Amino acid sequence: MNIEISERARNLHASAIVFDGHCDTLLDILAGERPWDRCEGKGQVDLPRLQEGGITAQIFAAYVRPELRHKAAWETLRLIETMYEIVEGWPAQVMLATRAKHVRQAKREGKIAGILGLEGADGLQGDLTVLRAFYRLGVRNIGLTWNHRNEAADGVGEERTGGGLTEFGVRLVQEMRKLGIMVDIAHLAPAGVAHVFEVYEGPVVCSHGNARAVCNHRRNLTDAQLEQIAASGGVVGVTFVPAFIAENPDEATLDRLIDHIDHIVHVAGIDHVGLGSDWDGFFQPTAEFPQHVGHTPMITEALLRRGYSEEAVRKILGENWLRVFEQVAG
Ligand SMILES: [Zn+2]
């Protein structure tokens, strides 16, 4: 992918807080499929490319494969430990962020701020004591479900059941609000999304999802949902998964991704859109698209070309995410 990056875009990107809401990298590192500190193999995120991409903060999701559900807390602990090994192994380059001030500190010190998240509440195994333990370990974002049903709610794969949050799911989001963990509706079935807005008072995020009006995929948000996220003060991280960008993945270009941002800005406003790549959670996009996290400055260039002001670009790159993170986690 060769889009030339102007000096203006380069400077803007280098000075901005760049905050990405979702990647699945921990799983690859835990599995020993590739190193963290070298750019090798099939991955899309590693230390050299996070630095090349000018990333300030990255939410690293702990995703538990369905076949490990019976011991999901154990697998989640292994993924959290992987994050700690990264942070402790590269202390000059990476730090764990549990509050907004850590993200700002990382920016000042030229480090990557790693934020722990869960992709699906499966790792709690229905226990709020486990939630509180994960909070102590640094978890600050929880996507309530992946595509399947769990103790908290039904995922989008269960859409036909019409199921919202379970009783545990309701208590979970209330406890998350008290502790300071972001409630993430990515992958949640529509009834669950509606239910979150009924019972949760606080900014709601969608860590990785796009606009349904631009690409009709069940993982993308309707205009009504975008309006609700905006009304809550939350943020939507636009995702780079080709099937969520365009119905024909061959048309999943950078330009089309910017169409999603345009649409979300139009419906929800400039304060409610950010980045949520899902790097390492999908296969390589088309040639007309950034190929890995190192290519993130292309998004800044594309936003400027689309006519966004520098102030608007800063919000999209990270200030919106940071605002929500600060409001929830402190
Ligand atoms: Zn996902």
Would you give an account of this structure?
The chain has about 325 residues and is α/β, with parallel strands linked by helices. The protein has a single domain (about 5-330), classed as Alpha-Beta Barrel (TIM Barrel), CATH 3.20.20. It has helices at about 5-15, 25-30, 45-50, 70-90, 100-110, 130-135, 165-180, 190-200, 225-230, 240-245, 255-270, 295-305, 310-330, and strands spanning about 20-25, 55-65, 95, 110-120, 140-145, 180-185, 205, 235-240, 275. Strands 1, 2, 3, 4, 5, 6, 7, 8 and 9 form a nine-stranded parallel β-sheet that branches. Helix 1 (about 5-15) crosses helix 12 and helix 6 runs parallel beside helix 7 (about 165-180). The chain is globular, with a radius of gyration of 18 Å. The termini are far apart. The mean pLDDT is about 95. It binds zinc ion. Zinc ion (ZN) binds near residues 119, 186, 187, 208 and 278.
List the bound ligands.
zinc ion
Overall geometric form: globular
Strand content: 5-15%
CATH domain class = Alpha Beta
CATH fold field value: TIM Barrel
Q: Overall mean pLDDT score?
A: 96
Distance linking N and C termini: 38 Å
- The CATH architecture classification is Alpha-Beta Barrel
> What is the count of β-strands?
9
Low-confidence stretches: none
Tally of separate domains:
1
Largest sheet: 9 strands, parallel
What is the SS-derived class?
alpha/beta
Helix proportion range: 40-55%
State the order of secondary-structure elements, H for helix, E for strand. Answer: HEHHEHEHEHEHEHEHEHHEHH
According to CATH, the homologous superfamily is Metal-dependent hydrolases
The total of helices stands at 13
Computed CA radius of gyration, to the nearest angstrom: 18 Å
